[in-house]
Each structure stands twice: as structure tokens, then as C-alpha cells.
Design goal:
The complex is a heterodimer.
Chain A: H1 3-22, H2 29-40, H3 44-52, H4 57-85
Chain B: H1 3-9, H2 18-36, H3 41-65, E1 69-71, E2 78-81, H4 83-106, H5 112-136, H6 152-179, H7 193-211, H8 217-235, H9 243-265, H10 268-291, H11 296-301, H12 306-312, H13 326-335, E3 338-343, H14 345-350, H15 353-365, E4 369-374, H16 384-391, E5 399-401, H17 402-405, E6 414-418, H18 427-430, E7 449-454, E8 475-479, H19 482-494
Parallel strand pairs in B: 3-4, 3-6, 4-5, 6-7, 7-8
Antiparallel strand pairs in B: 1-2
Helix pairs in contact in B: 2-3, 2-10, 5-6, 5-9, 6-7, 6-8, 6-9, 7-8, 9-10, 13-19, 15-19
The chains are: A mainly alpha, B alpha/beta.
Chain lengths: 94, 495
């Protein structure tokens, strides 16, 4: 993809992010931070590419280390978000 | 670069098959839905699942399109699949995933702010490592031109990605240490720190520009080192209670770092995610700053609370105040019709949320109306109090935001303040010279009776200002550890 197409996606996504995040209820701001943390670990894509590529051993090991770090975040981030969200309950109807 | 693979990829963008690009787009959309789900607790759990599916799609797509191969000789482009490397990748995911899973299951809810800060630091460091990996093996990332040099645009993206990642990392480490109490939460002020910081930032920008002309190792290495340094310098002067802004800001940075790497890889999932996370953190920082009536720059400049505390100590006058006991509080709470509870960071510190929920239950059993009022900056991260109350099984429809409940204090019999201070300080409304002037606060002075749980009369709030609420006629100070005091009140309410 050329730079302008990528930039267009980026700018549009910023607007989507702006409106979606304003609609998040303040009570869920902590889970919001935890889940944004988990999804920003999509950087693992770059780490996997580096790990799988032949040609540079140092690049591969940096990639593998990044895979470990990003995986901590992915599994930890989604799991802790799920744990928090499971706690939010409505008043029981009696 | 392999010629056979190159020709196979001809007609497809940057060597990524069309189906893979679609898959990345889908995972980006699923991430949007993950955040969208958080608009209400009822839809949030489904949202989190969309997020997990999105991440799975992104990872599987990458693994399938980048199967490790053993490079071959002049006759064969590759010898065969590199099972060794595949094993290493799976092991890396398993090790990281296992650590993350265990931490997520074991962490106490009160420790959530430092956990989030620690997780931010990992994203930052991962971005730095990926940036370096791309610099060392640019062919693998498809960012080299015909002349063998990295594209100029890609160099800027790499420089930015590494710089933002490094700032996120070192800044988050400091935020983590401060939040976990492993380092003093007090601001650490270096002389001429603004000059040092601005100089370092200017250096990073200049070097990134230079990097487009000269792709030597020293340039990118210096950018990395300076960025680690500035992240550290930016966060040490910021005090503990400004951490909600800092954590949100670092959240935002981790997003921009992912976006920069997404540009390098032309990866839509990374770009969409980066933009989402970046805006999310920026909006949260804005909400927090507004809730303190302070400019973002003033928070980031740091040092808040340090000067005020130093000045306020000398001119302190002794004013009369009343001390209450748990029995007094239990009696008056039991007789009330409507009680509004205002939790703050002190509740988190003493882990009083479970005892507090019990108190709420005992009061409701007596027909008392109980509501919880949460200030946007209560605690050490956005939504911190809400999570703790949810952990203690407080139904979320009993918990209200500042603007939704503030008019109700006039009809409340009791305002019950537990571990909060600055957010109920009327000086924010009346005293123009106060450092917290203009900050929206709870109108607790309108309630008939105020109970104020506080460890001792000596300490002032984070802002270092005295609080008139202590000395009001209708205020009874309950001086004790928050959890202990609430438990004593519960004993009084039980019979």
C-alpha cells in the first residue's frame, strides 16, 4: 500500500477512536485501559515477522524477545479485563 | 530477497497476500467493536471477546504468511520449513502468555494501576525491539529500496516508533515504581529540568531527521538512548495523585508506537489499533485534566503539590473540629434516609471496599437509600474506584458520576467520605488562590451530616491544602484506618 492510503486509514481510525472512546462509560475506564493495552500488543505482528525471517540472527532474537513481551500483554491484558468485567453486576431484582 | 517469492508476490501489495490484508482489516474492525462494547457493562464482556478474536486472527494470519524457511543455495530458494524457528516462536508465545495469564489471575484489584503501568512498559519495549529488528533485517519487513537502503519514509517511521516506544517503556517503569510504592510518589525536581527535557526532545527530533540522510547504527542507537532518558525525566517530577493523567498519557503513547510500526509494515490492524489506543489514552488524559481543572502541560511539567505543601505548613492555624466514634456514626447512619458514600484513594490503600459494601447492605436492610459518588480523578487511574466497588459486589447502578449526583447532596442526610479529600474541598469553589481552584468538587457541605474517615488530622490531601470540610458544624471526623473504622461501624449497625 502506498503511504497516502495508509495515512487515510490512520486518520479515519483516529476519528473512529475519538467517537468510540467518548461513548465508553466512565465506570469502565479501568477496563478500557486494560483492553487498549492488550490490543496495542498487536505489535506482536511485527515481532513475529522478525522472528520468522531468515537473514539476521540478532533481528530474530530481538523479535523473539518482543514476542514474549507482547504475549505477556496479550494474554495478561485480555484475562485481567475479562476478570474485571465479570465483576460488574446490576442490582438483583428481588 | 528471494526472486521466486518476489515474482509470486507481484500484483499484491508489499508481498502480503490479499486475503491476509483482509484478515488484518477484520481484526482491526474487531478491535473497534471491543472498545465499542465498553459503552455499558452489559455489552462489555462480548466486546472483550471480539478483542480476543481480533488478536487471534492477526497472530494466525502473520504466522501463516510468514512460515520460517531455511534459506537455500543458488539452485533452490529454500531448503524446507525451519521447524526449529517455529518451535522457538511457539515457545516464546507460550512463555509470555503463561506469565501474563498467571499475573492476570493473581493480581489484587487494588494493584490494578501499577499492573496497567507495567503492561504499558512491555508494549513500549516490544515496540523498541521490533523497530531494531526491522532496522537490522529490513528485507524481512519489505522496507528496502532497489539500492539496498531503507526507504526514507520507513526510516522516519522506525525512528518515531523506537522513540515513542522507548519513552513509553522508561516512563511506564517510573510510573509503575511510584504506583507500587517502590519509589516515593513525591515529585523529584531536577534543576533546569525543563531546559534538559526540551533539549533532549529537540535532540531526538533532529536525529530522526538526520536518520533519513544517514542510516548509521549510531544515529538510531542515540535516538533510542535519548528516548529512554526523556521518558524517565518526564515522569520523575510528577506526583502520585497526578498518576491518572500519566498512566492515560502512557496508554496513548503505547498506541502511537504501535501505529508507527503499523506504518512501517503497512499493516491495517496495527494502524487501526494504534489510532484507537492513541485516541483513547489522549481522551482519558483530557478527562482527568478537566476533572482537576488543570492544563495538560501543567500536569506534565510536574512538581504539583511540592510547592503548596511547603508553603502551607507554616501558616497553619488551629481550628476547632469534632471527633466522632464508630458508635456515633453507626447510630446516625442507621437513622438516616439517604446516605451518599464518597470513596477515594484511601479506601483502596486500606482495602476497605468489602467492609464498605457490607455497611451499604446493613443500611439498605434498614431501608436507608445508599448511593456511591465517584469523582473522575478518585484513585490512581481512571475508573479505579468503580473497579474496586464492583469487586466488592456493589451493583453498578448504585454508583454515580460527579455531575449526576452532585445535586443530590442537598437532600442527603449523610455524606460519608472515605479516603477522599481534595475532591470534597470547597476551596476549589471559593478560594481563587488555592492550587485546586476551579476543580469540580462534591457539594458535601449541603448534606445535613458529614462523616469524614481519615487516618489523622495531620495529613493534608495531595494538593497540600487544608480542607474546610473538617471544621464544619455538621462534620464528625472519624480518625482511624478506613477498613477498621467501617468494620466498627458495621458492628454498631448489626445490633
Amino acid at each position: 500500500m502506498d503511504f497516502i492510503s495508509i495515512l487515510s486509514i490512520f486518520v479515519m481510525a483516529c476519528f473512529v477512536g475519538y467517537y468510540v472512546v467518548w461513548s465508553v462509560t466512565p465506570a469502565l475506564h479501568t477496563p478500557l485501559m486494560a483492553v487498549t493495552n492488550a490490543i496495542s500488543s498487536v505489535i506482536v505482528v511485527g515481532a513475529l515477522i522478525a522472528s520468522a525471517a531468515a537473514g539476521s540472527a540478532s533481528s530474530k532474537w530481538l523479535g523473539l524477545l518482543a514476542v514474549v513481551l507482547a504475549s505477556v500483554n496479550i494474554f495478561g491484558g485480555f484475562a485481567v479485563t475479562a476478570r474485571m468485567l465479570a465483576m460488574y453486576k446490576k442490582k438483583e431484582k428481588k | 530477497m528471494d526472486l521466486a517469492l518476489l515474482s509470486a508476490a507481484a500484483g499484491e501489495h508489499g508481498g502480503t497476500p490479499a486475503w491476509a490484508m483482509l484478515a488484518y482489516l477484520i481484526s482491526g474492525v474487531l478491535f473497534i467493536l471491543a472498545l465499542r462494547g465498553l459503552s455499558s457493562p452489559g455489552t462489555s464482556r462480548a466486546g472483550n471477546r471480539y478483542g480476543m478474536i481480533g488478536m487471534t486472527i492477526a497472530m494466525v494470519t502473520t504466522l501463516v504468511t510468514h512460515v520460517p524457511m531455511i534459506p537455500g543455495d543458488a539452485f533452490n530458494s529454500y531448503v524446507g520449513p525451519d521447524f526449529m524457528t517455529m518451535g522457538e516462536i511457539v515457545a516464546a508465545i507460550a512463555i509470555g502468555g503463561g506469565i501474563g495469564w498467571v499475573i492476570a489471575k493473581r493480581i489484587a484489584m487494588t494493584d490494578m494501576p501499577q499492573l496497567v503501568a507495567a503492561f504499558h512498559s512491555l508494549v513500549g519495549l516490544a515496540a523498541v525491539l521490533v523497530g531494531w529488528a526491522a532496522y537490522l533485517n529490513p528485507e524481512a519487513f519489505g522496507i528496502v529500496g532497489a539500492d539496498g537502503a531503507i526507504h526514507a519514509v520507513s526510516r522516519v517511521e522506525l525512528g518515531l516508533g523506537i522513540a515513542i516506544g522507548a519513552i513509553t517503556f522508561s516512563g511506564s517503569v517510573i510510573a509503575f515504581l511510584k504506583l507500587a510504592g517502590k519509589m516515593s510518589g513525591a515529585p523529584i525536581l531536577l534543576p533546569a529540568r525543563h531546559v534538559i527535557n526540551l533539549g533532549t526532545l529537540a535532540g531526538i527530533i533532529a536525529l530522526t531527521a538526520w536518520f533519513t540522510q544517514d542510516q548509521s547504527l549510531w544515529v538510531i542507537a542515540t535516538i533510542t538512548v535519548l528516548s529512554f532518558l526523556i521518558g524517565f525525566l518526564l515522569i520523575i517530577p510528577i506526583g502520585g495523585a497526578d498518576m491518572p493523567v500519566v498512566v492515560s498519557m502512557l496508554n496513548s503513547y503505547s498506541g502511537w508506537a504501535a501505529a508507527a510500526m503499523g506504518f512501517t509494515l503497512s499493516n491495517t490492524a496495527m494502524i487501526i489499533t494504534g489510532a484507537l489506543v492513541g485516541s483513547s489514552g489522549a481522551i482519558l488524559s483530557y478527562i482527568m485534566c478537566k476533572a482537576m481543572n488543570r492544563g495538560f502541560l501543567s500536569v506534565i511539567a510536574g512538581g504539583f503539590g511540592a510547592e503548596a505543601a511547603a508553603g502551607g505548613g507554616a501558616a497553619k492555624e488551629q481550628r476547632p473540629w469534632k471527633r466522632g466514634s464508630a458508635e456515633d456514626a453507626a447510630y446516625m447512619l442507621g437513622e438516616a434516609e439517604k446516605v451518599i458514600i464518597i470513596p477515594g484513594y484511601g479506601m483502596a490503600v486500606s482495602q476497605a471496599q468489602h467492609a464498605l459494601r457490607e455497611m451499604g447492605d446493613l443500611l439498605k436492610a434498614r431501608g436507608v437509600e445508599v448511593k456511591y459518588a465517584i469523582h473522575p480523578v478518585a484513585g490512581r487511574m481512571p475508573g479505579h474506584m468503580n473497579v474496586l466497588l464492583a469487586e466488592a459486589n456493589v451493583p453498578y447502578d448504585e454508583v454515580f458520576e460527579l455531575e449526576d449526583i452532585n445535586s443530590e447532596f442537598a437532600t442527603a442526610d449523610v455524606a460519608f467520605i472515605i479516603g477522599a479529600n481534595d475532591v470534597v474541598n470547597p476551596a476549589a469553589k471559593t478560594d481563587k488562590s488555592s492550587p485546586i481552584y476551579g476543580m469540580p468538587v462534591f457539594d458535601v457541605d449541603k448534606a445535613k451530616q458529614v462523616f469524614f474517615i481519615k487516618r489523622s488530622m495531620g495529613g493534608v490531601g495531595y494538593a497540600g491544602v487544608d480542607n474546610d470540610v473538617f471544621y464544619m458544624d455538621q462534620t464528625l471526623m472519624l480518625l482511624a484506618d478506613a477498613k477498621k473504622m467501617v468494620e466498627d461501624i458495621n458492628k454498631g449497625l448489626a445490633h
